[in-house]
Amino acid sequence: MASAGATTAFEATVTALAGRQGRTIALLVLDGVGGYRTAHRASELAMARTPNLDELAATSALGLHDPVRRGITPGSGAGHLGLFGYDPLRYRVGRGTFTAAGLGVELAEGDVVARANICTLSEDGTIADRRAGRMSTEEAIEVCDLVNEQSFGDVQVRLVVEMGHRALLLLRGAGLSPDIADTDPQRTDVPPLAPAPLSEAGVLAAETVGTVLARCRNVLAHRKSGNFLLLRGFDTRRELPPFPERYQVRAAALATYPMYRGITRLLGFETHHVRNLETAVQALPELVRDGVEFVYVHVETPDLAGEDGDFEAKKTAIEAVDALVPAIRASGVEVLAVTGDHATPAHLSAHSWHPVPVLVHGGTAPADGIAAFDEVSCRQGSLGRFPAYELMPQLLAAAGRLAKFDGQRHGS
Q: Metalloenzyme domain: which residues (predicted)?
């Protein structure tokens, strides 16, 4: 199994200092919550009515994080790795690996996986809709079944539905490598990209993917919507340093979408499937009573609205989360962080490079006295602007879970 990265001196030091008994931590991630003020209006977060988050902000430490580094637009996997304290530039894992873990697909050594979007091509071969109108999971199963009926010689090819238009492409056979460029150009009105090898090792897999896509074009030609695949995040089986061992906490994850359960499963969390945020919040008190020390709660709806370019829907999604903040605070969690894994401004209909608001409440976190939770207010907070992988040490410190550093060596 390939390792996804190497431990730095900073990471080794945080791990060595972790282990003290302390307060319970919850990390509430509003996927794609970030945006930015334009010349015409404020961001979705600033425009949303969020009395509970604003009240919480007044007694919290505020700041902004860069999911990867300044100017870099992250995918959701990289954004989450940063939030969990794994520098995405060092721990490089493709979307396909996370999706496979979330779906419970066991990868053998040498398997190649990729995230697949079931998309719609126009008659001229250009991309009309990258998500096929956000087709239902049931319709996606029909599409995948048509492809899975095909034979591809010595390479086993399997499409597994994730949710809605999302699926996993699995290639299994000798001599395969994940060194393949994405075929998803991440925009419409252009043709899909060709599956190009990134090295000599990737030639066979790229040729196989080319054959798969050509076959897809044929067997799905009768469909006006959902008639092709866009692929990204090629990777293979990966190993990550376990989160519970790194930070000496019992960790649990509450998430609806498989990919996010996949990230936490690879990191060693106790992973729970919940139907929606309401059921996640209902599960929190029992997890805390049961001795869970770190709980991650994922909310997908702001990102979906942002990607659809729906400013009002993203506002509404944020307001729905705000309504549940009192229940989260009453759950027994002692340190609460609220943030996102990246920005998804509705007027861009895509992820962006902009810094993401973050709030840390409770324990020894300062109270900045800023009674608003949005990008402009968070810019004034005591946390400042920092790379996302520095969030976890701050949460552990606020929870009293890091020992004092006296300059002793902790490895590299």
A: 24-393
